[in-house]
Design goal:
Layout: E1 2-6, E2 9-16, E3 23-26, H1 37-45, E4 50-54, H2 70-84, E5 90-94, H3 96-107, E6 114-118, H4 126-139, H5 144-155, H6 163-173, H7 178-190, E7 204-208, H8 218-224, E8 229-232, H9 240-243, H10 245-259
Parallel strand pairs: 3-4, 3-5, 5-6, 6-7, 7-8
Antiparallel strand pairs: 1-2, 2-4
């Protein structure tokens, strides 16, 4: 992978293609750039410059013992866009990456051309927020890997998801360092979208997975940001960009076509 160094921390990324608007792919909690492999290939073939990052603490990037807040991830991305001369990218984030993409667009309104949020808990439902303290307590313990696997298996998949893919994701996520697992989840817990200066001033679309319990409280989200577009994948759990990439890619293609 290619890398940039920010304040002594290596931030890794892959790049392919050329053409505008460029696309910036931002993965989720305990994941890495490979979780956007279908989109990386798709948008490069469609004539876009595509950059897929490993957020600090994840993938091949360095994993210092530090705070991992959503705003810190977004600051890294803003810095990377400047150094890579990535002008007006379409920022596509999955899960935690969708929160980071939202924060980047809200606090750096002149940076992106638009933002795509895939099944991201930007506005945490009350039931999900109530369950966080117990989960965090377990993630801080010695059995955190099994705790993470159990949580992900129960809440991030539906019965029709591909079993082999599911096992690979569970293995990958549970291999993340404990200090990153805990701190990034604390960052998810603490993120308040109402504190992002200015909110969304660029076009945005939220694409949900086909789950019984929504990842984000969309009623509250629409109250805050009424012009957000909405789509939903059919027959896929949380990792819809991998499970049904043809659906997700088509929705993003259409979003780009009608908004830019």
């Amino acid at each position: 992978m290619r890398q940039l160094e920010r304040d002594g921390v290596a931030l890794c990324y892959e790049e392919a293609g050329q053409g505008e608007p460029p696309v910036l792919l931002v993965h989720g909690w305990c994941c890495d750039h490979t979780y956007f492999a279908p989109q990386f290939e798709h948008f490069a073939k469609r004539g876009h410059r595509v950059v897929a990052v490993d957020l600090r603490g994840h993938g091949e990037s360095d994993k210092p013992h530090q705070r991992y807040a959503m705003q810190d991830f977004a600051n890294d991305l803003a810095w990377m866009c400047q150094h890579l001369e990535l002008a007006k990218p379409v920022v596509i984030g999955h899960s935690m990456g969708g929160i980071v993409a939202f924060d980047l667009a809200a606090r750096y309104p002149d940076l992106p051309s638009s933002v795509v949020m895939l099944d991201a808990a930007i506005v945490l439902p009350s039931a999900a927020r109530a369950a966080i303290p117990s989960l965090l307590k377990q993630l801080r313990g010695p059995d955190y890997q099994n705790v993470l696997r159990g949580y992900a298996s129960k809440f991030l998949f539906i019965p029709t998801d591909d079993g082999r893919r599911k096992e690979g994701i569970l293995q990958s996520m549970s291999s993340a360092p404990q200090h990153v697992v805990v701190s990034a989840f604390e960052g998810l817990r603490d993120y308040d979208p109402t504190e992002a200066a200015g909110g969304l001033t660029v076009p945005g679309v939220y694409i949900a997975a086909d789950e019984l319990q929504p990842r984000s409280d969309m009623e509250r989200f629409h109250e805050m940001f009424s012009e957000i577009l909405y789509g939903k994948a059919v027959g896929s759990g949380h990792f819809c960009q991998l499970e049904v990439p043809e659906q997700v890619n088509a929705m993003i293609d259409r979003f780009i076509a009608v908004t830019l």
